[in-house]
Design brief:
Elements: H1 24-37, H2 52-64, H3 67-82, E1 89-98, E2 107-108, E3 116-124, E4 130-137, H4 146-151, E5 167-169, H5 177-185, E6 189-190, H6 195-204, H7 213-223, H8 236-254
Parallel strand pairs: 1-5, 5-6
Antiparallel strand pairs: 1-3, 2-3, 3-4
Helix pairs in contact: 1-2, 3-8
């Protein structure tokens, strides 16, 4: 599924020769290995996948070509075809991680003694599959990322109609007039509830779960890709590429293809 999305390689050698090119599959396996285990690029030299320099160079080429974003979009298309994207109830939430090496789009983490950190704002559909994502510094409030998160949708969103509204379920941290105005502008019906309000039906009804729990689970899914637990990439594009790769794998898995 990744192969058709890769840019066509052009041999720039003056005589069309040069060293044999490492297969894309080996490089893709190496990039996935880094994403899944969280190891350093140099650690690839101790594996039988490929040299770390080759994998990193290929990763940079694919990032520039938007390969991982296209993979995420392809995974959502497959999921929509096989399972159907649930637009009735969407959920949004942010999560903060450390960013010790610095770079762009980082800020002092208010929950970690002001150390450098990054915030990822995630938007999921009703089943919990990611459909939108943006990153900013850890000091950015969740409510300030609402517009950017909605605009980051990677699939075509159907227009809400009176008979079938599209609800948005953030937590109490989004309870601001600005957020309600933005959601109304995009045609969403806001359902902002505190944990105390959600706890009441949980006590009364066995098995009841808040509608926004799926976005919490999505963040947990993403944290299983160890490279995302701590941001080691100084370039936001590289960090986003790993996030897109993880979201694409989650979408394929939700569709039953992995």
């Amino acid at each position: 599924m990744l192969q058709p999305l890769l840019p066509v390689h052009v041999n720039t050698h003056c005589f069309g020769g040069g060293r044999p090119r490492i297969p894309d599959r080996h490089c893709a396996d190496a990039i996935f290995y880094v994403l899944r285990t969280g190891c350093q690029w140099q650690a690839l030299d101790q594996t039988e996948l490929c040299a770390h320099s080759t994998a990193h160079d290929r990763f940079q080429v694919w990032v520039e070509a938007g390969v991982f974003l296209k993979l995420w979009q392809t995974g959502l298309e497959q999921f929509d075809e096989l399972c159907g994207i649930e637009w009735d109830w969407l959920a949004m939430d942010g999560a903060m991680t450390k960013a010790p090496l610095g770079g762009d789009k980082i800020g002092p983490n208010p929950t970690d003694r002001g150390k450098s950190g990054v915030k990822r704002s995630l938007l999921t559909e009703g089943h919990g599959v990611p459909i939108g994502l943006t990153v900013e510094g850890a000091n950015r409030h969740d409510m300030k990322l609402v517009r950017a998160t909605i605009e980051s949708l990677v699939v075509v969103r159907p227009e809400p109609i009176k008979e079938r509204l599209q609800g948005m379920c953030p937590d109490k941290g989004y309870d601001y007039d600005e957020v309600y105005a933005i959601l109304q502008e995009f045609g969403f019906t806001a359902h902002v509830r505190s944990r105390r309000e959600e706890a009441r039906p949980i006590k009364r009804e066995a098995g009841f779960k808040a509608r926004r729990w799926v976005v919490k689970r999505a963040h947990s899914w993403m944290n299983r890709f160890r490279r995302l637990l701590i941001r080691w990439e100084k370039k936001p594009a590289n960090y986003l590429a790993f996030l897109h790769f993880a979201c694409g794998l989650i979408a394929f898995r939700a569709a039953g293809l992995l």
